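Predict the holo structure. Ligand: PRP.
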Amino acid sequence: MSTKTGLTIAVPRGALMGDTLDLLDRIGIDTSEVRSNDRKLLFEDIGIVTMRPSDVPTYVEAGAADIGFTGKDVLLEQPERAVYELMDLGYGRCTLVLASVAGPDPGAEALRRLGVMRVATKYTKIARRFFEETGRQVELVEVKGSVELAPLTGLVDAIVDLTATGTTLRENGLVVREEILVATARLIANPVAHKLKAAAIDDLVERLRAE
Ligand SMILES: Nc1ncnc2c1ncn2[C@@H]1O[C@H](COP(=O)(O)OP(=O)(O)OP(=O)(O)O)[C@@H](O)[C@H]1O
Ligand SMILES: O=P(O)(O)OC[C@H]1O[C@H](OP(=O)(O)OP(=O)(O)O)[C@H](O)[C@@H]1O
């Protein structure tokens, strides 16, 4: 893509999209076309490609995008990705928690009675590491979304999921039992682009730091 920045930038759709586009606007990349096209994915004139946050490391690792924006939770869940993490952007702050139905803790109860607790999550790698480190036996059930439903139906004893305002947990009668990590949005780069397009990437990072 031949654009003003000379870079192809992977922008996450969903929760991180608004703040990411606001930031790009502030450093002089006009994202109005992205905002006004809900279904369009590739914006050649400004060098932006949009995708789910968990796909950003895939595109950046392969060099299909030079740089990208995604959550720290996504990066921790995909530790094998060969990408450089350049900056903590501060926004998109949320916490990965262990949560279960309010009242006596069903997770702790299952551990006590059966020696194992069943946990639903999209974050199986982070969760596996967390329970290993804290010496607990768990059976992980991978779900793709609406994780809060799993303990309400008896599928599991607890969940590992992101929370920000706490509304979704509350609306579903769940409470936080433990905090696992806090995530914010990060800027990542393709290692080869980081060398070959160093000037363009450095310039962009400098402008982001000035914000
Ligand atoms: N309140 C929030 N809830 C969930 N994620 C948030 C929140 N605030 C910021 N984030 C960030 O946004 C990312 C998820 O965005 P969103 O929920 O829109 O995507 P998704 O469709 O669930 O993505 P994917 O399927 O790729 O995991 C998280 O990885 C996290 O870094
Ligand atoms: O604490 P809150 O402010 O309520 O935000 C947390 C909720 O937002 C995210 O869900 P999302 O809307 O991305 O849907 P998903 O569960 O399908 O990923 C996350 O998985 C929680 O469900």
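Residues 14-16, 52-54, 71, 73-74, 92, 94, 162, 164, 183 surround adenosine-5'-triphosphate (ligand 1) (CB under 6 Å). The chain has a mean pLDDT of 97.
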